[in-house]
């Protein structure tokens, strides 16, 4: 792995973390899903390293909890799904908005999956109690991707191209 | 991807989100109706226990109210000190016995002996239930 690539991954991990912190005051409105999708579209599998750095920074800030185990598979899973859909959806940002919305909708279910191994009844309660927030999460992800997806994607693509040229 | 396909996919997404919102609204309404059905005329009768080992204090109050939840009832009692947070009511003290975060003293709410997993605003008042407030130390 080149130095440039390492630094880029580290910087994007930091950006992802800062974006999360910046919107922590707004429940279930986040840019992480949005950026994970865009990073995957422009950088491919390197996004998995970015997600790992993000998870590490979250661990340092908040300490260990069952939520962190969920984060370990959720963000990489979103990146992998994006990679799989990349060839089908290409640059259709209305569709990517739906994908981002779907990620928001299933986020609660994915988080509650951890509790299946602890107490399945609690996992179910956690999931049901979180449904209103999942709906809100879906709407916010959809809107953010719809508005900012294409411009941000073009910018990231341009940065990538300039990097390759230099 | 054709325009028709895109419209269908977006339509399905919107329907699913609306269905989730509808489901949660329905669950909340059902919960409220069930609670109302369980409420006898004149309100629920329940017990509130306050215990603090630190202050050598124990009190039991027999209550009756037609309010919906414990949080709403706490707000009617002068002896409780509380603050309002984004998660609802947060109990900080009772009759001058305040929490002490520096020494890890905090008020724990239990319902019928089991520690509550939600705030007082989400605890529905039920006939015959016992709501305990214990000043605990340590997390």
Verbal overview:
The complex is a heterodimer of chains A (166) and B (139). With 166 residues, chain A is mainly α. Chain A has a single domain, classed as Orthogonal Bundle (Arp2/3 complex 21 kDa subunit ARPC3). Helix content of chain A is 84%, strand content 0%. Chain A has six helices and no strands. Chain A has helices at residues 3-22, 32-43, 46-62, 66-89, 93-112, 120-165. In chain A, helix 3 packs antiparallel against helix 4 (66-89). The longest helix of chain A is centred in the last third of the chain and has 46 residues, at 120-165. The radius of gyration of chain A is 16 Å and the shape is globular. In chain A, 36% of the residues are buried. The model of chain A has no long low-confidence stretch (mean pLDDT 91). Chain B is 29% helix and 36% strand. The longest helix of chain B is centred in the first third of the chain and has 36 residues, at 3-38. Chain B has 139 residues and is α+β, with helices and mostly antiparallel strands. Chain B has a five-stranded mixed sheet with strand order 2-1-8-6-7, with no helix packed on it. A three-stranded antiparallel sheet of chain B has the order 3-4-5, with no helix packed on it. Chain B has two helices and eight strands; from the N terminus they run H-E-E-H-E-E-E-E-E-E. Chain B folds into two domains: 1-38; 44-137, Beta Complex (Ferric Hydroxamate Uptake Protein, Chain A, domain 1). Chains A and B meet through helix 5 and helix 6 of A and helix 1 of B.
